């Protein structure tokens, strides 16, 4: 068994300078966002996933799985202290509640290994949530047991979900390989499902390769099989024409095709989270194989994101709110949706839906993982510094331009102005969890990702 992490000595990597004020402590902000989630009427133990949000009512909500990973990162990365109160206990209990709820409601049936989800990417988000929570139980066993609801380990639950999804989703009949997006559409291969497949398989291979992780009670695939799946799917993503030829970033999907035709790039939206996941699997494949080409690809994607997926220095119009261009430039923006139907005067709702509200948070999470994986010294030191500066710029802009002055609720536009997507605070859990991912990314360190 790997030794638990010793988080007490860890210091915040750097502070975020907020205007002319004193530097902001990212750990304190993450803690405050967590408090907001639990104390503002959003938390409801009887609700599906534990939070009151109208969008979290369909089967296997992937947003909840992402909140679990954000919470796990909070527990792993933010040191416990009396000044932060008892949020760690609440967060750990909410993760256990969420797993128990979905186990009881049929997302995972540990006896029959059947799943309730028609979208295979939803299942893979849950596999990742179980993996990260398993890493949490290794890091802080006093907060999180390694046993999953219904029996078995958290790692076994992740493996069971992944094995099922791979077996029903992967096919070479269409587009030469890749994970299909959903039940009934074997000919539709989008970026996120196969990216999740690589990320999950590579993480499982790393965990099972480590000493003490081979003891399992599930009838699951072997470590070498996960490694092969990760490498094969990564190679398919390189062959498949899914990356934009101009930016090098991933478009949304390949066009649907029949068995006799090739599947071209659909030239669809370039979502931020479809660039975040490759950073993750490139890190894990780099660790698995030692090949520098993987980490170099991650660095190239991160650099392209900083150029192509940031808010324009001329939007929003200055007659809405007088921000200096430097406050808006170099800040992540979901350009495929948050610049549509959002011109002055601002409407109640832009085109970003409840899925797209959290994409930037996922992008930030994986930028944090990449920064943590890069050595402070050596050939990648400059790349690490660039990523850290980019994340700090985003955090400063969110704080200056996108925070409710009376709470720790945040809006859609990280560059400002403060603006939510429906009436009142209906979607503040979605928006706040993205910002939680951002501030978590500022405090993740090499030590806190040693299990991945």
Q: What does it look like?
A:
By secondary structure, the protein is an all-alpha fold. It has one domain: Glycosyltransferase (Alpha/alpha barrel), CATH 1.50.10.20. The chain contains 13 helices and no strands. It has helices at residues 26-39, 62-77, 87-105, 120-139, 154-169, 191-209, 223-239, 273-289, 292-308, 325-328, 359-373, 381-401, 428-441. The longest helix is centred in the C-terminal third of the chain and has 21 residues, at 381-401. The protein starts with 25 loop residues before the first helix and ends in an 11-residue tail after the last helix.
In short:
By secondary structure, the protein is mainly alpha-helical.
Determine the fraction of residues in helical runs and give it as a percent range: 40-55%
N-to-C order of helices and strands: HHHHHHHHHHHHH
Low-confidence stretches: 1-14, 54-60, 314-327, 344-348, 421-426
Radius of gyration: 21 Å
Going by helix content, strand content and strand pairing, the class is mainly alpha
Q: Count of DSSP helices?
A: 13
Mean pLDDT: 80
The span between the termini is 15 Å
The gross shape turns out to be globular
CATH fold category name: Glycosyltransferase
* CATH class division: Mainly Alpha
* CATH architectural name: Alpha/alpha barrel
